[in-house]
Amino acid sequence: MTTPAADTDANTASTRTRDTAVAGRVRIETEGQIGWIVIDNEPRRNALTLAMWAAIPEAVARLCADPGLRVIVLRGAGSDTFVAGADISEFETVRRDAASARAYEAANVAAFDALREATLPTIAMVRGFCLGGGFALAAACDLRIADATARFGIPAARLGVGYPPSAIADVVRLVGPSRAKLIFFTARQFGASEAQGLGIVDALATETPLEQATRELAQAVAHGAPLTLRAAKAGIDALTARLSPADLATCQALADACFESADFAEGRTAFMDKRAPRFTGS
What we know:
This protein is 46% helix and 15% strand. The chain is α/β, with parallel strands linked by helices and 282 residues long.
């Protein structure tokens, strides 16, 4: 039986039964040794608003502080979609240029960092769309499990969006540099089997319903010695190469330039108009 946790803030709901119909929330639940973070914005395919991005670090912190928990599962609300990305309808106001994009990106990076640096192991449970910021959230988790409906992709090149270097690094650590370039350069979607072949998906639920398979995986992780798991996670992460501060600054400057470009304005306008963008490289 799932036990709802208390609200973390105005954007985090406390119960599944009372709040599922309310769009634009991040909520936490506990179930035995498993903590759940639910991205809940079903009318918009669980797209994340700025307020929802800001709620994720606190949700992670609350679950990590619960002594009864051993693992965190990140999922989308409902039975159709993980996270279709950021809510692009907000971009005209909250991500309109480099200055506002940096503030927006800070909320993105804080969410990715919270999952990546969580003291508990993290699992992304993916069905349906896992795109853009949703892909980056899944990549920041320790493990990803999906079913055959899952669709992965990063459509940044079709929107003129610059990605945070740390989020790019998470993708590179998953799939390697050339496959990361394939994902970013083509902006196409990858089905579940192809995503598993690329190294995006660690486990594919084929014989068992996704939620059951996820619980089985989470319980297998939860049964491990907590100190051993924490040491293993820290050791594996420490062995992963990271960019120098100078390299990160260069990458960040390039990402900032995207948000000052005419192409970014064209990308978000084309998306809202449901037409193909006409990029000029300026």
